[in-house]
Amino acid sequence: MAWARFSSLDGGIIEASGIHAVTHDIDDVTSGFWAVVITFEGDLTAVRMPSVSRRASATSVVDWTGVTGEWSASLDDTAYVEGVEEIRERIARGTVYQVNLCRVLSCPIEPEVSVQQLGNVLAQGNPAPFAATLDIPEACLEIACASPEAYLVRRGRTVTSSPIKGTAPTVEQMLPKDYAENVMIVDLVRNDLQHVCRPGTVRVDALCRVEQHPGLVHLVSDVTGTLRDRATWRELLDASFPPGSVSGTPKHTALQAIAELEPVPRGPYCGAIGWIDADRDEALLSVGIRTFWVDRDGPARVLRFGTGAGITWGSDAHGELVETELKAKRLMALARGQVRPSARG
Fold it and tell me: Which residue in 149, 130, 119 sits closest to 11, CA to CA?
């Protein structure tokens, strides 16, 4: 049976099961509870799930042996460094100010590897405020996500986006470019939300606050606005997607650079993963980072994982490569079974 688990707005979890409908049109999401995934390329899949329960967060530790296959990268270390330098050249020419450059890791997996078990492993070993696990193969959604970043949180007409820019092992190791990058993306998010919010309501509630996560720290900002009375989900997504923190600024030229420098689609990685409760007028869509997903090629299954970094003029190419490794290190160790799911830190 189709099954999904998400973080809820109150810090607990939502579990949903069954399939009432599947759509690829956001305009169909008018009533009921929907599991929602939007790929970075903009393809939406929404599944209306008839059975929904809410409870305090609790996940049992599972007997996880780990993924044993060999991982390959869409960009190897040399190609990634070259990509960083190319972006710095574009910044020098004035065509872009910041670009998020990513690579996708892939590994063949056996049919018995369970995305539900992987989701439990992540929940225990790398707890995240916007975690999600979707085991809905009927809709081609097999995803285990440990996202720390909120793309859109909606309560009625109030919407909040909390971009992350700036990552380091400790706050003392944050660089000036991390703070500058965060402020740059906050300005982009403010501009995005102003297209669909009432004039004068878009505000920055927090700027560059520090969040601790297993093995690293992030700089996070919170941007909030009040939606116009007749603003639709389509208008909100058109104005703000893809998330600014994983694309860049200006968004149009950043997306051009990503298309030219990244050899494979990102899929749900860096897209949006979460839920919309149309009856309650509530939603939580995370940025699809720290995310594993399954691609099927006939009978074969491939597990993928994405990692990236924001590139500015002040970027050091090797340092950005190290940042992608830092973001992936603990998640990959959990997936490989090299870290016990009960271990934290």
Answer: 130
CA 259, chain centre distance (Å): 18
Which domains are present in the chain? 3-336 (3.60.120.10)
- Which residue in the block uniquely carries the two structure tokens 């409870």? 55
Return d(Cα 165, Cα 174) in angstroms, integer. 11
Q: How many CB atoms lie within 10 A of CB 52?
A: 16
Written as six digits, the tokens of 73 are: 């990268």
> 86-117: b or e for each residue (b if 16 or more CB lie within 10 Å)?
bbbebbeeeebbbbbbbbbbbbbbeeebbbbb
pLDDT in tens, the chain (345 residues): 899 999 999 999 999 999 999 999 999 999 999 999 999 999 999 999 999 999 987 666 677 888 998 999 999 999 999 999 999 999 999 999 999 999 999 999 988 889 999 999 999 999 999 999 999 999 999 999 999 999 999 999 999 999 999 899 999 999 998 999 999 999 999 999 999 999 999 999 999 999 998 888 999 999 999 999 999 999 999 999 999 999 999 999 999 999 999 999 999 999 999 999 999 999 999 999 999 999 987 778 999 999 999 999 999 999 999 999 999 999 999 999 988 765 443
